[in-house]
Design goal:
With about 500 residues, this protein is α/β, with parallel strands linked by helices. It contains 15 helices and 16 strands.
Length: about 500
C-alpha cells in the first residue's frame, strides 16, 4: 500500500531543505586597455587591491576606484585583452603562496616557480599587503645579524629586526654585500629571501648559481621579475617577498630579506601611477611614493616573545645617480631605515672593496647589535679610522709631518687595508675579532701594507690550526676575557716571528 502522508512528509522535507546552487558573480566590461592597464566599467562592489580575472585567465589588481570606472593593473601581457571583454571579480585580495616549501626555489611575484623544478607544494597563502606590527608587538633590536664583512660587522653593525639601507652608485658592490650576507647565514638558522626587481634574467641566474655553489640556496628563496615584464609585477615583487618572509617570522623564525633595488620599484610605481592619471609630484613620482616604501619597510621588525620572538631584517638597496644622495627616493628611504651603508665609486676604484665609506655610513642600532667581543675591539678601530680621515685630508697639503702624525697615518692605512675583503668570502665573528684586535694593538705596524691581506689569511689559518681553543672561546662566550687576550697576544707574536 502507498502511504500518502509519508510521501507528502518526505516531499515537504525536501522542499524545506532545498538550496539552489546559484553563484552570483559581479561582471564588468573593459572600456579601455593599453600599457598593461585596463579601465573597467561595472565592478561597483570591487575592493582596493582585489584580484579580478580577465577572459584569457590573466589576473589584474584593482588599484584606482573611481566614480564611474575602476583602474586595473594587468599581471602580464595585455595583447589578448580587448575593449568589451568581460572582467570577473574573484573576491580575493591579492595574495601569494607562502611557507618553507618555497625555500630553494626561484619564483615570480605571483609565487609561481620559474626555475623549471616543478610545482611548489604548499596550501598556505598570505595577502601581499599586511599591516605592520605595532609598538607593543615588537621588542628592541639586540641580537647581531652577522654579515661576515669586517668593515660592516665592526663599524656599522646590523641587528636582527633592523632595516639597514645599502646605497651607492651603479657597480659599486651593493649586490655583492647582500649576497655575502646571505652566504654568511649558512648554519645560523636564518632564512633568506632575495627580491630581484627589474634585473636581467641572466643576472638572476648567475646569482642563483653562486648561492647554489656556496650551499646557500637551501635556505633562500629568490623572487625575480625581469625589466621586460609588466610594471605591475615589478611593483608587486617586494610586497610578495615580504609576505613570504612574514609567514616565517610569525612562525618564530629569523628571516633576512633583500630588496634589490627599490629605485626600480619606485620607477615602476611611477609608471603605473602616471598611466592611471594620478597627479604627479616631485620628480613626477605620485604623492604616496613615501607611503609605498614606508609600509613595506615598517613590516620588518623583531617580534615580542609573546608572538614567538621571530624577526625580519630588511636590507633595501637604492641606486644613486652620480652620488646624488639628496634625490627624492634616496632621502625618502634613508629617513625610513635604521641606518645606511654608503658605497662610493672613488673608494671602489682605489681598490678598497667593499667600498664602504665609513665616515658617511651609520647604524642607528649601534653597539646593541654587537657581541661584547666585537664591541671591545671595534671602539678603538672607529676612533683610529676617524682620526686617520681627518689627518689624511690635511696631509695632502703638507710635505713635512711630525713623527706622531706619520705614525697615525701609517696605522690608519694599515687599518683600511685590513678592512678590504674579497667577494664571496665572509668571515666568522671570532676570526674578525682576532684580526681587528691585532691591528688595534699595533701588532701589524712592522708588516708592509701590501702584505697585510696575506698576513690576515695566514694568521686565521694558523690560529685555527695551532690554537683552536682561542677562536672557540671567543665564539662560545662572545667575549674577550683577559685570559683569551693573553693567549691571543702570544699567538700573534708566535705567528709574526715566522711570517
Amino acid at each position: 500500500m502507498i502511504n500518502a502522508d509519508e510521501i507528502a512528509g518526505i516531499l515537504k522535507q525536501q522542499i524545506q531543505s532545498f538550496k539552489a546552487d546559484l553563484q552570483e558573480d559581479e561582471i564588468g566590461t573593459v572600456i579601455e586597455v593599453g600599457a598593461n592597464l585596463a579601465r573597467v566599467y561595472g565592478l561597483r562592489g570591487v575592493r582596493s587591491s582585489e584580484l579580478v580575472e580577465f577572459p584569457n585567465g590573466l589576473q589584474g589588481v584593482a588599484l584606482n576606484l573611481e566614480e564611474d570606472n575602476v583602474g586595473v593593473v594587468i599581471m602580464g601581457p595585455d595583447n589578448d585583452i580587448k575593449e568589451g571583454d568581460k572582467v570577473r571579480r574573484t573576491g580575493r585580495i591579492s595574495s601569494v603562496p607562502v611557507g618553507e616549501a618555497l625555500l630553494g626555489r626561484v619564483v615570480n611575484p605571483l609565487g609561481q616557480p620559474i626555475d623549471g623544478k616543478g610545482p611548489i607544494e604548499t596550501n598556505r597563502y598570505r595577502t601581499v599587503e599586511n599591516v605592520a606590527p605595532g609598538v607593543v608587538a615588537r621588542q628592541s633590536v639586540k641580537q647581531p645579524l652577522q654579515t661576515g664583512i669586517r668593515a660592516i660587522d665592526a663599524l656599522i653593525p646590523i641587528g636582527k629586526g633592523q632595516r639597514e639601507l645599502i646605497i651607492g652608485d651603479r657597480s659599486t658592490g651593493k649586490t655583492a654585500i647582500a649576497l655575502d650576507t646571505i652566504i654568511n647565514q649558512k648554519g645560523r638558522d636564518v632564512f633568506c629571501i632575495y627580491v630581484a626587481i627589474g634585473q636581467k634574467n641572466s643576472t638572476v641566474s648567475a646569482i642563483a648559481q653562486v648561492l647554489e655553489q656556496k650551499g646557500a640556496m637551501a635556505y633562500t628563496t629568490i623572487v625575480a621579475v625581469s625589466p621586460a615584464e609588466a610594471a605591475a609585477l615589478r611593483w608587486l615583487a617586494p610586497f610578495a617577498g615580504c609576505a613570504m618572509a612574514e609567514e616565517l617570522m610569525y612562525a618564530g623564525k629569523d628571516v633576512l630579506i633583500i630588496y634589490d633595488d627599490l629605485t626600480k620599484h619606485a620607477q615602476s610605481y611611477r609608471e603605473m601611477s602616471l598611466l592611471l592619471r594620478r597627479p604627479p609630484g616631485r620628480e613626477a613620482y605620485p604623492g604616496d611614493v613615501f607611503y609605498l616604501h614606508s609600509r613595506l619597510l615598517e613590516r620588518a621588525c623583531k617580534l615580542s616573545d609573546d608572538l614567538g620572538g621571530g624577526s625580519m631584517t630588511a636590507l633595501p638597496v637604492i641606486e644613486t645617480q652620480a652620488g646624488d644622495f639628496s634625490a627624492y627616493i634616496p632621502t625618502n628611504v634613508i629617513s625610513i631605515t635604521d641606518g645606511q651603508i654608503y658605497l662610493t665609486p672613488q673608494l671602489f676604484f682605489q681598490g678598497i672593496r667593499p667600498a664602504v665609506d665609513v665616515g658617511l655610513s651609520v647604524s642607528r642600532v649601534g653597539g646593541a647589535a654587537q657581541t661584547k667581543a666585537m664591541k671591545s675591539v671595534a671602539g678603538q678601530l672607529k676612533l683610529e679610522l676617524a682620526q686617520y680621515r681627518d689627518l689624511a685630508a690635511f696631509a695632502k697639503l703638507s710635505s713635512d709631518l711630525d713623527k706622531s702624525t706619520q705614525n697615525q697615518l701609517m696605522r690608519g692605512e694599515k687599518m683600511t687595508e685590513l678592512l678590504k675583503q674579497p667577494q664571496y668570502q665572509p668571515q666568522a665573528m671570532e676570526d674578525q675579532v682576532a684580526i681587528i684586535y691585532a691591528a688595534t694593538k699595533g701588532y701589524v705596524n712592522d708588516i708592509a701594507t701590501s702584505r697585510l691581506q696575506n698576513w690576515a689569511r695566514g694568521f686565521v689559518a694558523y690560529l685555527h690550526e695551532k690554537h683552536p681553543e682561542v677562536p672557540k672561546a671567543i665564539a662560545d662566550s662572545n667575549q674577550l676575557s683577559d685570559d683569551v687576550k693573553k693567549q691571543l697576544d702570544s699567538a700573534i707574536l708566535e705567528f709574526n716571528k715566522s711570517f
